[in-house]
Amino acid sequence: MALQIVSVVAGEELSSGTPYESVNPARPSETVATVQLAGADDFAGACRAAAAAQREWARVPAPVRGRVIASIGRLVEANTEALARLVTEEIGKPYAEALGEVREIVDTCDFFLGEGRRLYGQTVPSEMPDKSLFTFRVPVGVAAVVTAGNFPVAVPSWYLVPALLCGNAVVWKPAEYAAASAHALYRLFAAAGLPDGVLNIVFADGGQTYEGLDRALGEGTVQKVGFTGSSAVGRAVGELCGRHLQSPCLELGGKNPMVVMPDADLDLAAEGALFSGFGTAGQRCTSLGTVIVHEDVHDEFLRRFTVAVRDAKIGDPNGDVLYGPLLDHKFAERYEEYLGWIQPHHTVLPGPVGRMDGEGLYYHPVVVDGVRPGDRLFLEETFGPIVGVTTFSTLDEAIDLANRPGYGLSSSIYTSDPKAVFRFREGVSAGMVSVNNSTSGAEAHLPFGGNGKSGNGSRQSGMWVLDQFTRWQAMNWDYSGRLQKAQMDVAEITPDLGFRL
C-alpha cells in the first residue's frame, strides 16, 4: 500500500493539498507514495513558523546542538538499510549506491557534531590601548532549502546538518518524486529531539515554491536560500534572492570533462569514465559529460571504454547493476530530447539507443564519439546515460575544451605527469579536480561546489559551508574609560626613514 505523505510545519501536519503520486521508476505502475502538495501560502507560513522558533534554538549552546547532530547520525546509521531500500524503491538508485548515499549522511553528522564545540571566532589586537576586538559566528536566521531528488537524502543533509548546527531554523522543500525518502529523513531528524518549528518540511511544486519564497523573502522571514537543481532554475532563484539582497547557496548542473593524456592508464580511465558517466544512470550533477582524449590514444581508449559500457549490467536496482531506471517520467522525456541532439557526424556506440524493452524507465547507455565544440551535446548538460568523446593534441587545447561549455563543477585528468596535473588544475575552471579518478564522488569534509553555470561560488561540506549558514559579527570593547577614535587617536612612533649605513 502506498505511503501517505504530507507537509509538516511547526510539528503539525498539513493534510490538505493537491495529490501527487511518487512512483517506482523500475515499475511505474506501482505508486510508492501519495503526497499532498502544499501551496505558496503554506510555504510562506512555514517560513513564519520557522522564524518564530529560530531564536530559542539559537540560544541552545552550540555544543548541545552538536549532540543533537550526533543523535541524528546515530539514528540514520541504525536505519541505514530501511532508508536505502526506500531510496532504491522510489528513485531507482542501485541499492549499493543508496547505501553509500545514506553513509554520506552519517559522515556529515560525524563531521559536524564536532563543529558544535568549534564554530570559532577570533580575538584580534586593537590599534588602541585598553581595547579588545572580537569576531563571532552568528546564525543567519531561517534557511529555505530546495533540493533535487537524484540524491534525495544525502544532498539535503549537506544543508540541513550545518544549518541546524549553526542555530538556524529550516524550511525544506524536497523533490516531489522523492517525497517518501525525504519524509523518512525528516522523521529521523525529528526523532533526535529538534523542537517544533526548527525543521519544517513542505512538499510543493516549483511554481508554488517560488511564489511562497518570494513572499517569505519580502516578509523578511528567510535570510538564506539553498538550492540544488538545474542551472536554469538556479538562475531564477539567484535573481529572486538578488532583489531581496540575499546571497543564495546555489549548487547547479555540470558538463564535467575528463581529460585522458597520452600516458594515462587506459584501463583505469575507462573504468572511471564508466562509473562517472553512467553511475546513477548519468543523473548526477557531477556526471561525466565529455571525455577529452589525446589523439594518440583515442582509438585504444574508445575501444576499452566501449567494451566496458557494452558489458555493464543495467536493470533491477536491487541487483548488482551499473545503473537502474531514470528517476521519473519527466527525466525520461527530457533524456529523449537529448538523444535528438545526435548528429550525422557523430559515431554512436556501443549498440541500441533509446528505451529498453519492458515496463521500467530503463535506457541503453550511449557513447557518442566525434562531438565538436559547437555541438549541443558538447556544450549543454545531458542528464542521463550519454557520454560524448572528443580529441585534443596539446594540454592547452584540452583545458580550453574543458572550460568551453561554461560550467565549472567537477573535472578529471588521467596522467602520470605531475606537471600536467598542476597545469590542468591551474587552468580548469571547475571547483573540483580529480586526478586518476572519476568526476563523481564527494567526501563530507571537502568543499563541494562549482563556478559559472554550475553555481555562484558557494561551497557545501566541510568547514567551508559554515560561511553559508553563519554571518560574521565584529565587536570592539573599549575599557579605557575614554573615547578613543579609530585611525585618529593612534599612537605614532616616528622612524628616521632617511637613515643609511
So what's the CATH class of the largest domain?
Alpha Beta
- The CATH topology annotation of the largest domain reads as Aldehyde Dehydrogenase, Chain A, domain 1
**Oligomeric form:** single chain
Structural class label: alpha/beta
DSSP strand tally = 22
How many separate domains? 2
Tally of separate helices: 15
Distance between termini?
Answer: 92 Å
Radius of gyration: 25 Å
Helix % is 25-40%
In terms of per-residue confidence, which ranges show pLDDT below 50 for 5 or more consecutive residues? Answer: none
Output the strand order for the largest sheet.
15-16-17-14-13-19-20
CATH structural architecture of the largest domain: 3-Layer(aba) Sandwich
Mean pLDDT: 97
Beta-strand percentage? Answer: 15-25%
Strand count, sense and closure of the main sheet? Answer: 7 strands, mixed
Tell me, what's the shape? globular
Report the CATH superfamily of the largest domain: Aldehyde Dehydrogenase, Chain A, domain 1
Active site: 251
Domain Aldehyde dehydrogenase: 17-474
EC number: 1.2.1.3
Protein name: aldehyde dehydrogenase (NAD(+))
